[in-house]
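User: Modeling request: complex.
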Amino acid sequence: MAGANDIMVQVRESHEYGSHRVHERIEFDVRMNEFVCVCGPSGCGKSTLLDILSGVTKPTEGAVLIHGQPVNPKKQNISFVFQEPSTLPWLTVWDNIAVGLRVKNRPKDEVRSVVDGIIDVVGLREFERHYPHQISGGMKQRVAIARAFATDADLVLMDEPFVSLDQPTRERMQREVLDIWERRKRTIVFVTHNLEEAVFLGDRVIILSQTPARIRADMVVTLPRPRDPLSMEFTALRARCAALLSELSAVKNQEPGQREAGVRT
Amino acid sequence: MPMDQSIVTRIGDNASAPALRGATPATQVSKTSMRARAVLCNAASLVVALAIWELFAERAKSPYFPAPLDIYTAFSQLLQRGDILGNSLWTHVGASVYRLMVGFGLGVVLGVPLGLLMGLYKNLYVNTRAVIEPFRFIPPIAWIPLAIIFFTGITRYAFLIFLGAFFPVFTATMVGVGRVEPIHRKVFQVYGAGKLYILWRVVIPTVLPDVLGGMRVGLGTAWMTIVAAELTGGEPIGLGRMMVNYSELLRIPEVVVAMIMIGTLGFIFNEMLLLTEKYLFRWRWQVSL
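Assistant: Request completed. Predicted assembly structure:
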């Protein structure tokens, strides 16, 4: 179903932090408009992977190519939703959402119309003049998500964006992200340690091993959307991922780059 | 799923909005009433302080212990007729404030960029601190002899006040740079922002509260310095100079008028900086006093 032209991101890298080997031959491709979830045991270098994908960190070996070009935040349109609160306390909700557009030097009219549009999507219209300390943690994360989607980034990187939220808020945010993604297609790489989240959101789930991280499994999720986390297929797939992950903590790393089939490959 | 999005959004807004909506007017009301109360209490304290002063003055019955009324008489005399040399009170105030602004302005104009530079390039400070730090401990007053030899007029005063204002501003700025959160830099980096953009949009907003705090400390030192500098001689005008003239004549009320002017002016300047802080840093929880 994917032609070679559809490939948007090519990852071929190994990374060391000091003398510590973090990534061992992480190699995968991401297609245009694909929603890829990356799972793995904590401390396996998931966040580092996103830093490398964003171009902020350079891998010690190999490279990340976007549309065949080496990744460079100045040239490509990438955005990032961080795990920790990343709203700027001195800017209002509205100005926080506009940050990416302003860095990219978009014309004023465009900034206004885009921010006004996205602020409704994340339901923060009546809080646009508030400062981050006046709104809840969930709303701050919605600001961060709105900021990431405002720039119409080709590649959106999300680093456990919902980890600090309570369960109902998290579920609602997951649906909101899917909603935005379905309305305005774009490529997303989403890191999480929550398997249910990964299976619920992703077109693909990549499972990393413990450090030095290798790709343990790369599964295509073909369940129709919207997905029902209580359905048989969903639970089966989730159990399969869980088995892979628990196997990881028990057994030593196997062959790197091994691919496993999902429900259907 | 547009179907449940509306429901979902409403749930979320209900969960957080009432608390905020309910809280805002209530806190605003209590804030204004609290402010009015604070103003009243301060006025009352002032009256009580003056009354106690008056009481002591009546008991003392000495020309060297003027009562508040004597001070007021001296004040209006200085305003209307000027001092022994014919200079009005405003001439003295104007001269002192002018010197203060030049020296203090110089301290800020040099202290902020140098603080930023040394805060951003920590090694620059670490490798030169043996040169910088000892200067901090030489009080501006200790520079007066050299200042008298090397400078005259406004440059002398500006130099001395600069010494007083520079270090608080410089140190506060440098320390403030350390408070910049790496995540805030990263937010801009992922969109491809350069170093200058990050300096302007992240470092400066983060550091500004510290800079204003340093300015308020520097302002206190600047006032201390200006009076000391004027006491040592030079031009015949300035609040410090006026004090010396009258103390030589043993006319205490005029001396006290100069003291009160210095205190009041310092207070007004400080309040102005505080108001600027409150306006600029609305995004913070609280502004320290």
